[in-house]
Amino acid sequence: MSKVPVRIVYRSGEGNLTWAEDDDVLRQALVDGDGFVWLDLTIRTEEDASVLRDVFSFHELTIEDCVSPRVDPARIDDYQDYLFLIVQALTAYDSERELEPVEVDFFLGRTYIVSCHREPIAAIEHFRERCQRDERLLRHTPDWVLHGLIDAIVDEYLPIVDAVDDTIDKLEEEILERPDTKLMRHIMLAKRSSSAASGGPPSPSAKSCSGCRGGNSPTSSARTPRSTTATSSIT
Questions:
Q1: Which of 21, 92, 165, 235 sits in a 20 to 30 Å window from 4, CA-based?
Q2: Cα 151 to Cα 156: distance, rounded to the nearest angstrom
Q3: Cα(first)–Cα(last) distance of the chain, in Å?
């Protein structure tokens, strides 16, 4: 088991909710065929990812994506027993720096969601806080909860996109008033940030998510996934 702190939300088959950071709770949750568990992990090293390999037996390629510092394009891979999703989240916008998306990886199974990221993701924190205030949000199916998580990530895009657009408008007005090489650099920087923000994270199709409900417990064999590059956003 990894030494990385684990954050677990476990809804038992009887409907009882447990918030924990205890490996024993995770083991209990995974043998409860009628329950649901959401495991949230911060992963930066191979050791951090050991729970993905040792407990869930996820495909090595998906674990490699979770550990790598590279930010991959948004996509959905179907491993039959579970779906693997890559989403690009946005954190904060600084007009002096190019906007850089942060990768968030999700595993969706019949009774579980695993979310993985290299740094804290505000959208995930906000959704977790919403669930603590209203635990009814966690009494739905795993695909419904995943939809809520991705929807929260989409919501974080909107103010950042507006801020980038405002920056571009302001710079274009300034360049008309006083042409300057430095202003041109800021405009190109803002344009690249706008391009990074306009792609948006993927949205799992209802067909793909619902198809995972009939999967098995968190185990998988080494198989070639069916991959879909997703570009649409949840509305």
A1: 92
A2: 9
A3: 38
- Name the 3-class secondary structure at 216: coil
Q: Is the dihedral angle over the CA atoms 82, 115, 24, 60 positive or is it negative?
A: positive
**Complete domains list, the chain, with CATH:** 6-228 (3.30.460.20)
Q: Can you state the percent helix, strand and coil of the chain, rounding each to 5?
A: 45, 20, 40
Per the CB < 8 A criterion, the answer to whether 53 and 114 are in contact is no
Whether the predicted pLDDT of 90 surpasses 80: yes
d(CA 106, CA 110): 13
**Residue labelled with tokens 């070639």:** 224
CA 22/CA 17 separation, integer angstroms: 14
Mean of pLDDT values over 170-192: 68
pLDDT at 166: 83
Please list the residues that pair with 83 across neighbouring strands: 78, 108
Backbone angles phi, psi at 39, to 5 degrees: -110, 125
Taking alpha carbons only, the member of 45, 199, 117 closest to residue 53 is 45
**pTM given for the model:** 0.76
Q: How far apart are CA 1 and CA 54, in angstroms?
A: 7
CB-count burial class (<10 Å; 0-12, 13-18, 19+) for 42: middle
